[in-house]
Design a protein that fits this description.
The protein is about 30% helix and about 5% strand. By secondary structure, it is mostly helical. Bound molecules: copper (II) ion.
Length: about 325
């Protein structure tokens, strides 16, 4: 079972138990991060149990967590005297030339217009107000999915980001997740500073906090170049997860705990950058894929497999 879990209940402040002490060096700062050093030397045993939570309505977003189906649709009886179709009930018939949905183009957040920033914040706020964000954060807390410290890290978070993007696009189809190129920027996205939503988690409401720069150094371009220099997947993925971890600890507060990190919108922008770096590396390392098989290759609670995660174009998005 899961070897490395966050200490449950200690939302933000506490130091977690150190998992295995695998002697991985910690180049960024001396503060032991709640995000453990990745250890890719041991392939994950992945029992793939169905998760126990019954409160998720939408299977597309919550995968196998979704135990509730929408109520059966009862059609309006045709002989009902009051029934009159309205103009807005009309849906044009589908044709064979139905256009494919547009690719989501994820942009550097510095390239967003003020309108695009506002649309992202609004969609995030609305998804949260609908109660849809909390359950998605709770999926990240469940160590049964083994999303950290092993080769599932990159493919699992690739699907995880897509699920948030789909949620945001239900509110506003123009919204994609922007990426935060922290290695180059060396600063927190200023337009997010005042945005600290409260998210309802299974453990109760959590309000986003940050403690920027207090506990780590943000990886820089040299660190990313070193990551990119890896020729095979496991050392690459492990090094990139290390860069991810340092970003979490650098932002601090909510971002510092696996249990709460995805409440902060910067989590998704940080992971979009990690995902973008992976996609760039993939382009020049054909055939170097996460060594996952069987249940470990299924990105539960969703049905996508590792093979499905290899091509971001096939998944419906790209990076600008
Ligand atoms: Cu994560």
């Amino acid at each position: 079972m899961a070897k490395r879990q966050p200490s449950h209940g200690s939302g933000h402040a506490g130091h977690p138990k150190e998992g295995g002490g695998h002697g991985g060096k910690r180049p960024h700062g001396h503060h032991p991060p709640p995000y453990h050093d990745p250890d890719y030397s041991r392939p994950p045993e992945h029992p793939h149990e169905p998760p126990p939570n019954p409160r998720y309505p939408d299977e597309r977003i919550y995968g196998s967590y979704a135990s509730k189906r929408p109520p059966v649709y009862v059609p309006h009886p045709f002989d009902h005297s009051c029934f009159k179709p309205r103009k807005e009930d009309y849906k044009p018939p589908k044709t064979c030339e139905e256009p494919k949905p547009d690719l989501c183009v994820r942009k550097d957040h510095r390239a967003l217009t003020t309108d695009e920033q506002n649309r992202f914040l609004n969609a995030y706020t609305q998804a949260n107000a609908m109660g849809a964000l909390g359950p998605l954060v709770d999926i990240h807390s469940n160590a049964a999915h083994q999303p950290h410290g092993n080769p599932r890290f990159l493919p699992w978070h690739r699907i995880y980001l897509l699920r948030l993007e789909e949620l945001l696009m239900m509110v506003d189809p123009s919204v994609c997740i922007p990426y935060w190129k922290s290695s180059e920027e060396q600063a927190f996205p200023s337009w997010l500073l005042g945005f600290t939503p409260t998210v309802n988690l299974a453990s109760g409401p959590h309000t986003v906090t940050r403690n920027i720069g207090a506990f780590a150094t943000l990886p820089d371009a040299t660190d990313v170049t070193a990551v990119m220099a890896n020729a095979t997947f496991n050392p690459f993925g492990s090094a990139l997860e290390g860069v991810d971890n340092s970003g979490h600890v650098w932002v601090g507060g909510t971002m510092q705990s696996i249990l709460t990190a995805p409440c902060d919108p910067v989590f998704w922008m940080h992971h979009a950058e990690i995902d973008r770096i992976w996609s760039v590396w993939q382009a020049s390392h054909a055939g170097q894929n996460p060594p996952l098989a069987g249940a470990a290759a299924v990105m539960d609670p969703w049905s996508e497999t590792e093979v499905d995660t290899r091509d971001i174009g096939a998944l419906g998005y790209s990076y600008a």
